[in-house]
Design goal:
The chain is α/β, with parallel strands linked by helices. The protein is 49% helix and 13% strand. The longest helix is centred in the middle third of the chain and has 38 residues.
């Protein structure tokens, strides 16, 4: 088996080294702070897929006294051919020396055979103080590349490019927080060209990571499909004794079951968010998202939520059910008004499909109270009878997945999920529309999906994810 390469990420303090390590190792547990000296000892961060380590990143402290180190090296070197051994001798001689703790920690993995990733901040001007660092790294003789990781708003990357090109074989701009996935793979390919012994290992690494990305997309679609099945079919039930029936009004019972139903939906949606974040190895995301909620006592979702995520009548028609089918499907629209009676909560049916799809509110599930039997009554709330519920949840889930799948692990900013304000599902093919609608219809009737039906449902969701991905990238 080919040995997994090791890369030491080095540079000046507080220039984004840990951010680069976090992104390339897919590890958001790495400490990233604005103050210098956050990293005081080298730390290994392997990137593994299916239990196999593809490569290891070494996060290192920043240079503290590079000019003094270079002076020592020059004083102890006889010829250019002994430069690597001179660097090794410096590390061996100065371990434990308080003056050079950071330099020894930084250089140790390099003299042990690691490749070098030198990180600079392209938002600050180039200065000659970095030349001592770059000269020391060149003395090691190890394959190396330089990354210009701009932290601030200014851009001095052209000057940096010219200077770094004199010391490093490859120089790239790389925004650790925002660089797209393809740039990660590009860096691995570049290192494979610099070090022939790593070429095969890094080719395999890029292939594994590309396959993993596709697998995660498919797994995310499966997670969304299972969550939608649960959310669409969920029903809250309560059994009441004769005394409880006498003491509990229909209005109170309706409110209790409705609140329990809503809390379940909220928890289930949040668990879906966490499952997808963990799938992409994001363990510490701070997320802000408007909750699914009632705009008023009679509405399932707020107006803005319906506007952004629901689908149109035209979409539903192409999905296989037109106005007549909608009217005959038993939408079971109910309102929690004052006209309660006869053991059931009664509301008004929405008569026309057009007024339903473009109306001001979604319909709520019905409360059903069964007849008294053996001294007991059973009341139920749900499942949801409105297919728009599924589309709203699907839209929110796909939007969250998109942000997570494109988020680098160096990102520490708050993830704010905002509605897309575009009915991107309209771009779906008719087959996918039918599969989504068919699954929603079965779920709201509490008919479990077959294995084949679930696979088709998942495939349709995955195509919806691709459509959303394309729309977001075209809009950027």
């Amino acid at each position: 088996m080919t040995k997994a390469p090791v890369f030491a990420v080095v540079g000046h303090p507080n220039k984004g080294k840990s951010s680069v390590v976090a992104t390339l190792s897919q590890n958001d547990a790495i400490a990233i702070a604005l103050e210098p000296g956050t990293t005081r000892a080298r730390q290994n961060y392997p990137l593994s897929v299916d239990g196999r380590t593809l490569y290891t990143l070494v996060d290192t402290p920043g240079f503290q006294r590079p000019r003094r180190v270079l002076q020592w090296l020059e004083a102890h070197s006889i010829a250019a051919s002994d430069h690597p051994e001179t660097v090794r001798a410096f590390v061996l001689q100065h371990r434990g020396d308080d003056r050079y703790v950071d330099e020894c920690e930084l250089l140790a993995p390099v003299v042990e055979g690691a490749g070098i990733i030198y990180v600079v901040d392209g938002s600050v001007p180039y200065s000659s103080e970095h030349e001592a660092e770059m000269t020391i790294l060149r003395w090691t003789g190890r394959p190396s590349l330089a990354l210009i990781n701009s932290i601030g708003p200014d851009d001095f990357s052209d000057t940096w490019q010219a200077a770094l090109g004199q010391f490093f074989q490859v120089v790239r701009k790389f925004d650790a927080v925002r660089a797209p996935f393809e740039q990660h793979l590009s860096l691995l390919r570049a290192f494979g060209q610099l070090e022939p012994d790593w070429e095969t290992a890094l080719e395999e690494a890029t292939r594994f990571l590309s396959d993993q990305r596709q697998q995660r997309r498919h797994q995310s679609a499966g997670l969304i499909a299972r969550a939608l099945e649960d959310l669409m079919s969920h029903q809250e039930q309560r059994t009441l004794t004769l005394n409880q029936v006498a003491e509990t009004s229909d209005a109170t019972l309706a409110e209790t079951l409705r609140d329990r139903w809503y809390r379940h939906q909220r928890r289930r949606e949040q668990s879906l968010r966490i499952d997808i974040e963990h799938l992409y190895q994001h363990q510490r995301i701070r997320r802000q998202e408007a909750e699914l909620q009632w705009h008023s006592q009679h509405d399932l979702f707020a107006e803005d939520t319906r506007k952004h995520w629901a689908v149109s009548k035209r979409y539903l028609a192409t999905a296989g059910f037109g106005a007549g089918a909608v009217g005959g499907a038993g939408i079971d629209a109910v309102t929690f008004g004052s006209s309660l009676g006869a053991g059931a909560l009664v509301g008004g049916l929405i008569g026309a499909a057009g007024s339903y799809f473009y109306g001001d509110r979604f319909t709520l599930p019905a409360l059903n109270i069964g007849p008294l039997k053996d001294g007991l009554k059973t009341a139920s709330f749900g499942p949801v009878q409105d297919s728009q519920f599924g589309y709203v949840v699907l839209g929110r889930a796909v939007d969250h997945w998109w942000h997570i799948s494109h988020r680098n692990h160096a990102g520490r900013e708050l993830l704010e999920l905002e509605p897309a304000d575009h009915h991107w599902l309209e771009q779906l093919d008719k087959t996918s529309r039918r599969e989504l609608q068919r699954a929603f219809d079965r779920c709201r009737r509490q008919r479990p999906l077959s294995h084949q039906g679930r696979e088709k449902f998942t495939a349709a969701i995955e195509r919806a994810m691709t459509a959303y991905d394309d729309w977001r990238l075209n809009r950027a």
